[in-house]
Amino acid sequence: MDLENTKAQMRKGILEYCILSVLSRSSCYASDIIKELKEAKVIVVEGTLYPLLTRQKNAGLLSYRWEESQQGPPRKYYELTKEGRDYLADLDNSWNELVESVNLIRTR
Amino acid sequence: MSCIVVLFLYIFALSCYLYNIVVIFEIMKITLSINLGSWSFNIDEDAYSELKRYLKNLEIHFATEESSSEILSDIESRIAEIFRSKLTAYKQVITMEDVRFAISVLGTPEDLSNEETTSTREKFTSPGYHRMYRDPEHRIIGGVCAGMGAYWNAEPWLVRIIFFILAMMGGLGILIYLILYIVLPEAKTTAQKIEMKGEPVNIHNITEAVKNEFNSVRKNMNL
Does the beta carbon of B122 lie under 8 angstroms from any beta carbon of chain A? Predict the structure, then answer.
């Protein structure tokens, strides 16, 4: 068994959930999301985020708009769609269930 | 006798001269102007080729993805942002160091496939970077012949014989050898050793190379 690999596997599953959670508070542009995820230590390299954002956008969970920026070219701001919010509510539930299940096993 | 001494002095002087040229080239680099995520950057030539290679590898990595061009343009914008943060009034050119930093932040295709959500993705291979190095492991003098042999996939002894014959004919072989010794970098890291043979550098190859090295050490020690 490879500890690093197991850890990476654990992170993988929750990354999508984390992205949606970050966006549920306010619309963000990619670097803001990255900053939060890095602070929370859920991503190691930033490149992982971009394909996920695009996939979620293609699935209709996110939408984006271009916003003018004072420091340079326009930036892509992502926000949750109605579908995305429902999806996130579902994930919130299953996350709580998961935490409960794991705690139940660990504290036995 | 004095003729040989003069010849050697001549070779020495010439190689010093060539060395100076090499050094000057390293100090005075050519820069290119590129457009990255709608920003314009001046970038060193070597840094440019490294960046281009990185983006090419990412393109291959995301090729199976539905909107790969969109992902790539997002990544390019992010690289542009990182580069912007590296520029100051006193530093106006993107260097190799900046490119390496950006790559370490965004992750190589290998890093990405380690963190990927889908494990069903097929193993990709990035195009190999084929370069000539000096091979310190199989060297007799400076590893030039061994490195050339590895580059062309030829027997190093064949290269050595050709050099020897050229050296006998008026010392040309010695001169070429000296120049190559100065110009060619030594293959120090495992990645460079793999590049020397022209194989793509990825996790699989590096593990393989390390394994080989370990086995040869074990053999030498009769374990």
Answer: no
Q: What tokens appear for B196 in the block?
A: 């020397």
**What whole-number distance in Å separates Cα of residue B220 and Cα of residue B71?**
49
Q: Quick one: CA dihedral A37, A39, A41, A47, positive or negative?
A: positive
B42 inside domain: yes
Does B16 map to a domain? no
| CA separation for the pair B129, B187 (Å, rounded) | 13
pLDDT per residue over A13-45, tens digit each? 788 899 999 999 988 888 889 989 988 888 878
Contact yes or no for B181/B144 (Cβ under 8 A): yes
Q: How many domains does chain B have?
A: 2
Residue B138 domain flag: no
Residue with the larger pLDDT of the pair A72 and A21: A21
Beta strands in chain B (DSSP E): 31-36, 39-44, 93-94
Nearest CB neighbour to A8, from listed B65, B75, B115: B115
Q: Are residues B47 and B111 in the same domain?
A: yes
pTM over 0.80: no
**Other beta carbons within 10 Å of B144:** 27
CATH hierarchy code of domain A3-106: 1.10.10.10
Position B65 confidence tier, pLDDT thresholds 50, 70, 90: confident
Single out the residue of B113, B114, B105, B106 nearest to residue B64, CA to CA.
B113
Tokens of A73: 């070219």
Q: Which of B64, B96, B115 corresponds to the end of one domain?
A: B115
Residue B54 contacts A where some CB pair is shorter than 8 Å? no
Q: Which of B68, B100, B115 is the last residue of a domain?
A: B115
Mean pLDDT across the stretch B43-55? 92
Scan residues 14-53 of A and list those with Cβ closer than 8 Å to B.
15-16, 30-31, 34, 43-48, 50-53
- Give the domain extent around B151: 144-220
* Residue B148 falls inside a structural domain: yes
